[in-house]
């Protein structure tokens, strides 16, 4: 079967004046593009890139937390963490399915990830060294994800926007469970409070960098905004997120490791200290603390799951053969 990836489809797509006019009108009235509508090649390509990267992030993102399921401090915490990790698998599946509507198969996306050609969020290349990291990840990493993803519920591509509605509901729950872990630790023994503070210190800057580079260094942002895929720039979302953390950290009675956080009355947004973009680029280039481990685990899981895929394919073939016989 000929490979139908977003790029090949985009390259072979004929120019269609009526299609372009319809697309422009839909974007202008802030309505939705659906899979069967004609769309410009660049739009399709940008969506495949963003959505598949998002799907991969959900799947790789299961690893740092799954690492703590067996060591969660109580049965209740284990059950909650297990449910959260399963939710992330579900998010990956919705997003792979939504991306498939653009003409790229899940197998192709998986192949690109395993071959190291596709990216996932660099946040998941940091290690989870204590139980408090489960709190910090829920509060900050899922919190950053929500800040980023709520506006995507209004993205112009229908299947993406609809997947995002359900994902955001679950992410809100994830954030609350993380906050609650930190709240309990920060009001526990001095040792527990120190563990919570240490986790917040380590996850703060990487979570701010989840919004991507400053807008000035983010070549895709303006196009995505013109197409109503993205609604706000990276810097605006990051600043909003800092404001949310700055308020909630007071309830936790912890501190954010950034003395420069303040509300700027002139710009009506939150200021924060400089971020280490050199580190961000290193992690993105595959040289973060856990990049190799994450990919190795993902490849092993893929290999271990081969028999499940074969069995499912054999079962589906059998079912369709028997359906054909019944129809005949
Ligand atoms: Fe998720
Ligand atoms: Fe989540």
UniProtKB/TrEMBL annotation:
Protein known as: 1,2-phenylacetyl-CoA epoxidase subunit A
Molecular function GO labels: phenylacetyl-CoA 1,2-epoxidase activity
SUPFAM superfamilies documented for this protein: Ferritin-like
InterPro entries named among the record's database cross-references: Aromatic_CoA_ox/epox, Ferritin-like, Ferritin-like_SF, PaaA, PaaA_PaaC
Gene Ontology BP terms: phenylacetate catabolic process
GO CC term (a single one): cytosol
